Amino acid sequence: MAKSFLMSIAIGALLVAAPSMASRAYANDRELLSVLERNACVPERVVPTQLSAALIVYAVTCKRPARVLHVICVESECRLQTRPSEDDEQ
To answer: Of 11, 18, 62, 85, whose CB is crowded by the most CB atoms within 10 A?
Structure first.
């Protein structure tokens, strides 16, 4: 009984710490932070989507101004994804 109680405490602690640990994992990415800084984005939430071993797309929710930026990183190079022009969509 004591063992299962300790296990539940450990799982609870991991669930509480997981969001802050995830934020720190991406906070050191200099290229990503550089793109956000150039676009005056104070990140509130960063959601990575790994499309391949070398390609990650980050959906970044900015606090100020309130908006979502999509940043594409290929290996160590990151750039802001822009919407296609109307001519490109046709």
So the answer is: 62
Nearest to 81 by CA among 45, 47, 48, 57: 57
* Interval 34-79: pLDDT, tens: 999 999 999 999 999 999 999 999 999 999 788 999 999 998 899 9
Q: What's at 25, amino acid-wise?
A: A
pLDDT at 84: 64
Distance in angstroms (rounded) separating the CA atoms of residues 83 and 22: 28
Are the CB atoms for 36 and 71 separated by under 8 Å? yes
Tokens representing 60 are 């970044």
Q: Are 55 and 73 in contact (CB under 8 A)?
A: yes
